[in-house]
Design brief:
It is built from 16 helices and 2 strands. With 352 residues, it is mainly α. The protein has a two-stranded antiparallel sheet. Helix 6 packs antiparallel against helix 8 (164-187).
Length: 352
């Protein structure tokens, strides 16, 4: 609730405006309110509640809160930022956020049912849940694609270089939302997959890629965006941010490819052949091949930590001065009036 109050307090001036971005701000505020309040579903069960009822309400928190409202929140945040940067049209941004909200409102609750395999839920209901759950990533992926196309066309604009790395982190959000939440999420969503794969390493595979890939990179992108606005006249060094961005993304990818995915697939095969109990047993998890795959994760972890260190070094350097290479004139003024810059760049390139 404190977080909700702080967010709404910051949004209040924007809510008073009547411009073309007001609809996005309203949806963003609504998603923030739902995040702050919807966690209350966790209070609908207690220590003596029947397990099937407890599972139902628990997934209201885990699915509807994380994959529902927070998905709309992430989409609204990126749509607002991309609109401010002139990377997408306000109409596209509003449509994407409204689409995300519609998918949540009409499919969010049925989408929860793919989690309820061991609560006696009929297979047909879980199939509906798996289908609708997979659709939740579509709006964010679409606005990310449009933003990338516009970024590629208009990257020669002077202000684009100023906000290059925050935009890159936002692009990473769209990519991992498609891969982590979309592909790896749908991998474990269908009822037949849930029967063999629920609770195996395929679950943290989805969780790692989606949680850090979407919300982690979103948070880091917003941090860099704010830091850029606080010191608009300084020219940032590219090297530490390039190292941070690629190390964190490559490190996350290596965690997935070298460890989480192969262990999850091996567990799935064991579950099909011998049963879920065996795939989760110490006898299987302590096999030499599985132990070796677990240790291989340290490769991705190390690369990831290099990126974390580079980003921390860069942020500290903004205070001490070692993260700057000079100054740029009126970069912030360009940003405040840039909404037509990319459009003009696009028209100029197309006309040629």
């Amino acid at each position: 609730l404190l977080w909700l109050v702080l967010v709404l307090r910051g949004l209040w001036p924007a809510l008073q405006e009547n411009g073309h971005r007001r609809q996005i701000v309203l949806l963003f505020a609504g998603a923030a309110g739902a995040i702050g309040l919807f966690y209350g579903a966790g209070f609908f069960y207690g220590a003596r509640t029947h397990l099937s009822i407890m599972e139902y309400w628990r997934w209201w928190v885990v699915h509807l809160w994380v994959e529902g409202f927070m998905e709309v929140f992430a989409t609204a945040a990126l749509a607002f930022i991309f609109t401010r940067l002139g990377l997408i049209r306000a109409a596209s941004a509003t449509a994407a956020v409204l689409t995300a909200s519609t998918i949540y409102l009409f499919a969010g609750i049925p989408g929860t049912f793919h989690h309820l395999y061991f609560s006696g839920t009929p297979i047909a209901v879980m199939a509906v849940g798996a289908t609708f759950s997979a659709l939740e990533v579509v709006p964010l992926a679409l606005i990310g694609f449009e933003a990338w196309e516009t970024f590629r066309i208009g990257r020669r604009a002077p202000w684009m270089a100023t906000y290059h790395w925050p935009i890159r982190f936002f692009m990473g959000v769209a990519f991992w939302n498609l891969v982590g939440a979309g592909i790896f999420g749908f991998l474990i969503n269908p009822p037949i997959a849930l029967y063999y794969m629920q609770g195996l390493n395929t679950t943290p595979l989805h969780g790692h890629a989606a949680l850090f890939g979407v919300y982690g990179l979103l948070a880091l992108g917003l941090v860099l965006f704010v830091l850029r606005r606080l010191q608009p006249e300084g020219v940032w060094k590219d090297a530490p941010l390039r190292l941070a961005f690629w190390s964190m993304n490559i490190g996350l990818g290596l965690m997935i490819v070298l460890s989480l995915l192969p262990i999850g697939l091996a567990q799935t095969w064991a579950s099909i052949d011998h049963g879920l109990w065996y795939a989760r047993s110490a006898d299987f998890l302590q096999l030499p091949a599985i132990v070796a795959l677990r240790w291989l994760r340290i490769v991705g972890d190390t690369v990831f930590l290099v990126g974390v260190g580079a980003l921390a070094w860069f942020v500290v350097g903004l205070k001490t001065g070692w993260s700057y290479v000079g100054s740029t004139s009126k970069a912030d003024e360009v940003f405040d009036s840039n909404t037509s810059v990319v459009g003009k760049a696009r028209e100029a390139i197309v006309s040629k």
